Amino acid sequence: MAVSVTYQQLESGADEKLPVVSFSQGKVSGVNNGVDWNQTSFKVFKRRSGSENDKRRNWRIVAARGHVLDYVGYNYGDQASKADATSKYMVGVLDRSTGKMKAYDAQLFNLKPWVKREAKRPAAAINGNTPLSTREKSDRLIETFGSNKQKRAMHSRLKNKISEDSIHKAATTAAENAKELPVELDEPDLASFQLLPPSNKETLIPSEIYRLEHIVSETLLEDLEEKGKALVDASAEEIEKWKKEESHPHFVLEKLPLSPGKSLLSIKERAAVLAYMTVLMQLFITRKRTAQGIPVLTEVPHSIKEHISETLFQETSTASGRSQRYLTKLSKSRIMIHLLLLALHVDGFETMLDPLQKDTGVSQTIMHRYVRSLGGKTKKIQDKEKGGSTPGAYSKYQMQLTAPLTIVTRNTGKPAKHKRR
Questions:
Q1: Could you tell me the pTM of the whole model?
Q2: ω into residue 257 within 30 of 0, thus cis?
Q3: pLDDT in the model for residue 340
């Protein structure tokens, strides 16, 4: 039977799409043990938005109530399916009597189990004694897992309350625990740590090659609105003061005051991206290995700290079998790649590399390698203020990202022989 297909839009509007769900843990099956599993109810929740320019008007939540578990899926934020960025989904409804099929736009939702959070329980007594206070619990954690500096501070505070024997016993326990700590980390798993974010090499739009939401989501940018507002509202005197004190990165200061440019982002979004880049730059130049003790991570919202720890820190196994996230060389390479991509989104996919080199301390050769790995191109620009095109003039380099994407791979064969003149 020949089938003719026609494209149809939903009556609710052109922006509406049919939800297509997939379960990350479980599936809908038939009747089992007297229970009809097909009686799963689905509901779609839509965000209320009165403005047509609000990007959040297309946010949807799909909830499914089953016999055992409830499931929830989102089309925005970190929990949204990444498949919609590279694929287009449609649902076809076939009328067998006429042989005609109607095709509708669809959107994929990955449903995950939703578990209710239990209420906080009161502190339980240990061995029938009085429940421990917050300070006592903190002291026990420091005694077992704390650093030497934390343990010294704790012992100094408790030296007038406990005996000398107790201090000696605690010091012995700390020394034994220190012996069990790993001296060296295992070799990192390169295959499980992807440096480049998802990309669309066939698109003809530069902003769609490396989408901003694959680097930092809209939800995280909303959490940085307060820090971004300080950049937007900065006066000329404050900007000049920041330049003298060098309290902000050179790349950020050169963008102030913010004004409409080639970027597709609004001023509010650009300010939030610049605030996120400030955090990444300070993280790049730090010498700390773990998230504990890095000052910049203590000043950002918890959602930003969690996102950075999960996406940029590398999870490795120590010699004792424990799994922990560390800021490795691969982590800093990924941070540099994210900085370059964010700079492209801020400047309309043509950005100067010199400010980033000053802020990160990366050499020109290595910076150009990062640009080539992303499929970008570097362009040499003469500085007119320092000599123009005259011999010995100061030159700057500009990074460009054009569509479609072309990544040049290095030749791994023997180097070419140069002829002598």
A1: 0.52
A2: yes
A3: 92
